[in-house]
Amino acid sequence: MAHEHAHYAPIAYAGRFAIGIGLNVVFVIAEVAFGLMANSSALLADAGHNISDIMGLAFAWAATWMATIRPKGKYTYGLRKTTILVSILNALLLFGAVAIIAWDAFGKLKNPQPIAGTSVMIVAGFGILINTITALLFYRGQKTDLNIKGAFLHMAADAGVSLGVVIAGLFIHITGKMWIDPAVSFVIILVILWGTWRLFAESLNLALDAVPKHLKIEKVRDFLLQKEGVTSIHDLHIWAMSTTQVALTVHLVVPGGASDMFITRLQQELSDKFGIGHTTFQIESKDLQTGNCNGGCPPGT
Predict the structure, then answer these.
(1) How far is CA 205 from the centre of its chain?
(2) 129 CB contacts (<8 Å, ≥6 apart)?
(3) What pTM was estimated for this model as a whole?
């Protein structure tokens, strides 16, 4: 058996996450307050969307921090999978927020009420500024870290959503059409649902130990079968230990045996090529698969 455990790197972006979360918390509070005063469901909808920003940043920060906790006691993998469970909870909370926003927007669509379009434009304008600043905090890191890249893309997209709210406020100011506000709310709801559904589906897949979506198990299998001395493989499993760490276990049939150098090199190649940082190999001189899967291994093993 061979094990290669992920390195416990320091949290290089802790300060940036804290700044980003702090800025967005202050903005959401201000947006909710002005949304209520201006009677704007668009602002309230955008505030709900910006709550997803805070959750997304907190989630990415938690994932980075969890990777530094060493396993101990009965938690042999540490608490890394907590990040996946929290992401499911965040998605469920966001679905609830969408329902509340939609109910409010439907009410105002049936019974339009006066809205302070200028206030909408000003507050959402600050949203563009804050989301852009937050995105720039992660601009450099997103080139090499998928977790950081997710935070960057989320904030960059939300700067565009805030721009949509500004446009709605401008048209209300020009035309006086009150239906524009709830209409924009529905557009924002669709944006929230799109991102939330993807978060929920991916988190649920990870919780069920599915292969992370950025990996193709066929490519990993082909890579292993191409290694010199490997005649076949079975019981190949790839799953997420956290939102940033991936594990792999596999039985390699190597009739001539495998040296420590072979195993070390294979570990490094899997890490470099696929980002799989925790690997466990069982080396077999002949195929010992018979009987291991209770009468037959399912496809993909």
Answers:
(1) 12
(2) none
(3) 0.71
